[in-house]
Amino acid sequence: MTHTATAGRLFEPFDLGPLRLPNRLVMAPLTRNRAAADGVPQPIMATYYAQRASAGLIVAEATTPNAVGRTYPDIPAIHRPEHVAGWRQVTDAVHAADGRMFLQLQHGGRVGHPDNSGLVPVAPSPVPLPETIHTRAGRKPSVVPREMTAADIRSTVADFARAARNALAAGFAGVEVHAANGQLLHQFLAGNTNRRTDAYGGPVSHRIRFVDEVVRAVADAVGPERVGLRISPGNTVNGIAESDTHRIYPALLDAVADVGLAYLHLEFADPGLPLYHGIRRGWPGVLMANPGPRSTAALPAEDVRGVGERLLTEGADLVSLGRGFIANPDLVERLRLGAPLNRVREEYSMYVGGETGYTDYPALDRQLAVNGR
Predict the structure, then answer these.
(1) How would you write the chain as a 3-class SS string?
(2) CA 279, CA 275: separation in Å to the nearest integer?
(3) Which domains does the chain have, with CATH numbers?
(4) Per-residue confidence band for 1, with pLDDT thresholds at 50, 70 and 90
(5) CB 76 within 8 A of CB 117
(6) CA–CA dist 95, 53 (Å, integer)
(7) What's the pTM value of the predicted model, to 2 decimals?
């Protein structure tokens, strides 16, 4: 079967600060649990990311800036020299395949466990995760996190800045600050996880302060043109409940608008909702839109491409996809051609390690050869 290439804005080049992206499709950060037990990236990760180097930009998976920020087993880190060396093997492989990479920096906050990090998790307030948490020994009850002191907050801000410098030393073109999906920065934003009464809690202007400080410290460390920020307004994952979403995010984006960030990464971007257009109008820079973790997972290529083109028409500059890149190392070419997409093989856990369901998804030419076409 032959396929005809389709033109579209998704496949146009785009200048992201100092980076020239060959297309507007971004591989979203995807936790895959393939690092070593101490957080050092492994060679298989270099293979995985190099396979997907045709993305306009790869945002590598959530990576911890310090030990206490670790969420689950086999999550990569970026706070020790051996972490930098491990990631350097990954970025070298991607660069050799003509790819570009940012690294997402994520602190789990209360989404952690002593069995995973060796430490009691920290959080804005001593409010435990309302669910069990995955450990190497299986799922266990969450623990009550330790409320962060003012000194903890200062040291964590410094850890993010140091992690950003480490990321550039490891060969990344920039970093993404993760303030979404119920992780530490999101915990400071949401009222149900932030019950503080000091300068970091209470009114919205106080709850956005920690995120603002992290963003500014990271931008000062590596340059704002090398820093993105990810948010997921209204997302309830990991027990988050925002009663004032409509106030949190305009205030946060107004606070950081003058930093000159490389991009804002909006998860669950839906042009059918007023929130999307409000964020687009209020954000002065590049908007990267992600339609959500499952919104395009079962669609044919033409429909996935249509979702992306609509987001661009409705004001996004870049479109990030997750599961599509998991199952299709050559997703950009498949979408360009309207070729069939591999589906994520749910029978294989995405988080158990090894090649299966990770580096063994076929590229289009190999798949057609196997199918005798």
Answers:
(1) CCCCCCCCHHHCCEEECCEEECCCEEECCCCCCCCCCCCCCCHHHHHHHHHCCCCCEEEEEEEECCCCCCCCCCCCECCCHHHHHHHHHHHHHHHHCCCCEEEEECCCCCCCCHHHHCCCCEECCCCCCCCEEEECCEEEECCCCEECCHHHHHHHHHHHHHHHHHHHHCCCCEEEEECCCCCHHHHHHCCCCCCCCCCCCCCHHHHCHHHHHHHHHHHHHHCHHHEEEEECCCCCHHHCCCCCHHHHHHHHHHHHHHHCCCEEEEECCCCCCHHHHHHHHHCCCCEEEECCCCCCCCCCHHHHHHHHHHHHHCCCCEEEECHHHHHCCCHHHHHHHCCCCCCCCCCCCCCCCCCCCCCCCCCHHHHHHHCCC
(2) 6
(3) 9-370 (3.20.20.70)
(4) very low
(5) no
(6) 8
(7) 0.95
Q: What are phi and psi of 193, to 5 degrees?
A: -105, -15
Question: H/E/C letters for each residue in 77-95?
Answer: ECCCHHHHHHHHHHHHHHH
Contact in structure between 134 and 170 (CB atoms under 8 Å): no
CB 313 within 8 A of CB 291: no
Q: What is the pLDDT of residues 179-221, one digit of tens each?
A: 999 999 999 999 999 999 999 999 999 999 999 999 999 999 9
Query: What is the pLDDT averaged over residues 112-137?
Result: 97
